[in-house]
Design a protein that fits this description.
Blueprint: H1 21-29, H2 35-39, E1 45-47, E2 63-76, E3 82-88, E4 93-98, H3 103-108, E5 114-124, E6 127-131, E7 134-137, E8 149-151, H4 160-176, H5 193-201, H6 209-213, H7 218-243, H8 257-263, H9 270-283, E9 290-295, H10 301-314, E10 318-322, H11 326-340, E11 347-350, H12 356-368, E12 373-376, E13 390-397, H13 403-410, E14 420-425, H14 431-437, E15 442-446, E16 457-462, H15 466-478, E17 482-486, H16 494-511, E18 517-520, H17 526-538, E19 543-546, E20 559-565, H18 572-579, E21 590-595, H19 601-612, H20 616-627, H21 629-633, H22 655-668, H23 670-681
Parallel strand pairs: 4-6, 9-14, 9-15, 10-12, 10-13, 11-12, 13-14, 16-21, 17-19, 17-20, 18-19, 20-21
Antiparallel strand pairs: 1-8, 2-3, 2-5, 3-4, 5-6, 5-7
Helix pairs in contact: 5-7, 7-22, 7-23, 9-10, 19-20, 22-23
Bound molecules: adenosine-5'-diphosphate and magnesium ion (MG).
Magnesium ion (MG) binds near residues 301, 396, 426 and 553.
Length: about 700
């Protein structure tokens, strides 16, 4: 770089026309500070207002400008009057529908009037229609634009016009400067950086719309590649920083492991042995382990975690084991108590619900080190939790935690040493996705299930067949089996969810009076949940009505039947987790997906994946295809949903190049790496998807 004058691209946004203090504040909140940041604020999609589409060639779900004449227009009376206008253009007939309209609007729509409108056609029972299009009457003059119209991600109160004005100015500045093309000489593309940026902000009218929509345009690929490289580099940088820290090398003496393994009721699988070997090897080194263990539901990740714990305890160190939900953390507590209490190991429990004097006592045990293993929820991160000698952090995660969350826990280690870190994922992550999402971690895979499991048989059933299903539950339980009845999220609210479960439980109690039926949901206290689970585990309860709180970790081998209501509302990975609660014993298990008809085509395809496969990796790949990475990894803290250009799985073909290019940059141009990381992975607030 040969720069001495201030770069206009790095000028603050206040230098742009129309950016006053108020707008500046909003842009700042969105993570946009300098002119360059606007260039990397890319449109989410484009509208094509460059040409008129004949009605006869309209495609469903695609925005289009249409010009024609009104043939008839009328207000259809009813509870909600609707304004309908049928429009023809010589190639076909299309119905416009308005559910909100003013009287004047209805009066202006007379037969014979010329109309130009813009919207998305749908296919309805009465042919093609369009709901609430933008329109103009009597306009024969053209309203066409000369480039595709970019639609930017935005927040309330900032219209598309404003984004266009801002980016226009940024593009002008781009034209006067030469941005630093950090992939020059490394990646070949028909577009250089500036051209690619310009193209995506202002695609010409000749732009191949379909290709752009599929995210496959060379300009998109050029930028997506750079963005993925930047993400990969940022995780690598994080990894390098952590690996450079000191950690306590731990070599267990076997004094606990040996008797523990002798008393164990099962023989570890080869896959478990291998992964445990990888973990213990990491822990024996004076630099921190950063390891991810992936294993399908039921592959026995808990046992693997236990062996890591035992090694740390033998070395006189402390462990924090964190689970995403209270219920799962409690299950771990029980398992570890059962496994480790006979060895006289101090185990402490900490969740947000442990309060007052009890909390004080637990905190003291952790601070003094009399508790070697501390199990809990997010509460373990909180201030006031001080460890005597934390040397191993295990996170059993439901979704990808933010990297910073994991780091918050590692900061609990006293002194300069960083704890060893072990992450267990409940969701198998497709390889392509883990290359981006987990590039900071080494990965071990438990690719084998313990022997003697029979795959779960899954059936799709229309919810109209509910009575037959209830009878089947009754019969199975009468035969000594146990069953789950899962009520899925009706709303993003625990309360409604719990209500639905309560209603279902009382209904089932009426219809199956001879069964003992329990109920578990997120509103119960920890103690209540624990007691319900204990009753179910011991067989006192035959049927457990539950919300998705039982999604992860719950382990009752005698349960062999699961009913899932409204499975179409859940992601595949989540359904797979739920279904993993059965099929844990030697009896053949069944899962009935009680869907609500009619299913959309995609809805049916998704459930069909569940019916035909029990392979968590395959299912996760399909989930990625259907729903994208944000959903699969958990939308909240991944930071992955804020990719600006890159799309997965659409760009998975780039990933091999991403790894190679990142390696070359680190080797040959380390000075470019930080700039690249700053450019693409700076803080960003979530934008609304429009
Ligand atoms: P997950 O990987 O889903 O967390 P768990 O650790 O809960 O699986 O293990 C599922 C069940 O399998 C538990 O009851 C556990 O005790 C049992 N299990 C684990 N490893 C083995 C093994 N090698 N042989 C038999 N059973 C095992
Ligand atoms: Mg588990």
């Amino acid at each position: 770089m040969t720069v001495s004058t201030p770069k206009p691209l790095h000028a603050p946004l206040s230098t742009l026309r129309g950016v006053g203090p108020k707008l500046l504040g909003r842009l700042e909140e969105l993570g946009l500070r300098q002119v360059e940041d606007l260039l990397y604020h890319f449109p989410l999609r484009y509208q094509d207002r460059t040409r008129v589409t004949p009605i006869g060639s309209l495609q469903e779900g695609v925005d289009a400008v249409v010009q024609g004449h009104i043939r008839i227009a009328s207000v259809v009376p009813g509870r909600r009057p609707t304004l309908m206008a049928k429009v023809e253009d010589g190639t076909g007939l299309l119905t416009l529908r308005f559910f909100h309209f003013r009287r004047a609007q209805a009066q202006q729509m007379k037969p014979g009037v010329a109309i130009t409108f813009f919207g998305q056609a749908r296919r309805s029972s009465a042919g093609l229609d369009m709901v609430h299009p933008e329109y103009r009457l009597d306009s024969t003059d053209t309203v066409l634009e000369d480039a595709l119209t970019p639609i930017y991600p935005t927040v309330e109160g900032m219209g598309q016009g404003l984004w266009r004005k801002l980016t226009e100015q940024a593009l002008t500045i781009l034209g006067q400067t030469d941005p630093d093309d950090l992939l020059r000489g490394i990646a070949s593309s028909p577009f250089n950086l500036a051209e690619a940026i310009r193209y995506l902000h202002r695609p010409p009218p000749t732009a191949p719309v379909e290709q752009i929509r599929g995210w496959q345009h060379p300009a998109q690929l050029r930028l997506a590649l750079e963005e993925l490289v930047a993400h990969h580099l940022s995780l690598q940088a994080l990894r390098a920083r952590e690996k450079a820290c000191h950690a306590i090398a731990m070599n267990g003496d076997g004094s606990i492991a040996k008797p523990f393994l002798e008393a164990l009721s099962f023989k570890p699988t080869d896959a478990q042995e291998r992964v445990i070997g990888e973990i213990l090897e990491d822990m024996s080194k004076p630099s921190p382990m950063l390891r991810l263990v992936q294993g399908d539901v039921g592959s026995g990740k808990t046992f693997v975690a236990a062996m890591a714990c035992i090694c740390a305890i033998e070395s006189g160190q402390q462990i924090a084991l964190m689970a995403p939900t209270e219920l799962l953390a409690e299950q771990h507590l029980q398992t570890f108590k059962e496994w480790l209490a006979p060895r006289n190991i101090g185990i402490a429990w900490l969740s947000g619900k442990v309060k007052g004097r009890a909390r004080g006592k637990v905190l003291q045990e952790i601070a003094e080190g009399s508790a070697s293993l501390v199990i809990g929820t997010h509460a373990l991160f909180q201030e006031g939790v001080v460890f005597a000698s934390l040397a191993l952090v295990i996170v059993d995660e439901q979704h990808r935690f933010g990297v910073h969350q994991r780091l918050a826990l590692t900061e609990k280690a006293p002194g300069k040493a960083l704890p060893h870190q072990l992450v267990l994922t409940a969701t198998p992550i497709p390889r392509t996705l883990s290359m981006v999402a987990y590039a900071d971690l080494d990965c071990s895979v438990i690719d084998e299930l313990p022997p003697g499991r029979t795959p779960v048989q899954t059936t799709l059933l229309d919810s109209q067949r509910r009575d037959a299903v209830i009878a089947r539950v009754g019969a199975a339980c009468a035969n000594g089996r146990q069953a789950y009845w899962v009520c899925t999220l009706i709303d993003e609210s625990d309360n409604l969810d719990a209500q639905a479960a309560e209603a279902t439980a009382s209904l089932l109690r009426e219809q199956l009076p001879s069964l003992s039926i329990g109920l578990i949901h997120g509103r119960l206290s920890g103690v209540e949940k624990e007691s319900v689970m204990a009753d179910f585990k011991s067989g006192t309860l035959q049927l457990l009505v539950a919300t998705t709180v039982i999604e992860v970790g719950v382990d009752v081998p005698n349960a062999s039947l699961m009913i899932i209501e409204n499975p179409e509302r859940l992601g595949l990975a989540q359904l797979h987790q739920l279904r993993g609660r059965v099929g844990r014993g030697p009896i053949e298990s069944h899962c009935l997906l009680l869907y609500r008809a009619p299913l959309s085509r995609q809805g049916r395809e998704r459930l069909e994946v569940m019916r035909s496969s029990t392979d968590g990796f395959y299912i996760a790949e399909q989930d990625l295809r259907f729903r994208g990475p944000g959903e699969l990894l958990g939308t909240r803290q991944t930071g992955l949903t804020s990719f600006r250009v890159a799309q997965l799985p659409e760009h998975e073909g780039l990933l091999d190049d991403v790894i190679k290019i990142a390696a070359r940059l680190m080797q040959d141009h380390p000075e470019r790496c930080t700039t690249l990381i700053d450019r693409w992975t700076g803080e960003r607030q979530a934008f609304a998807r429009v």
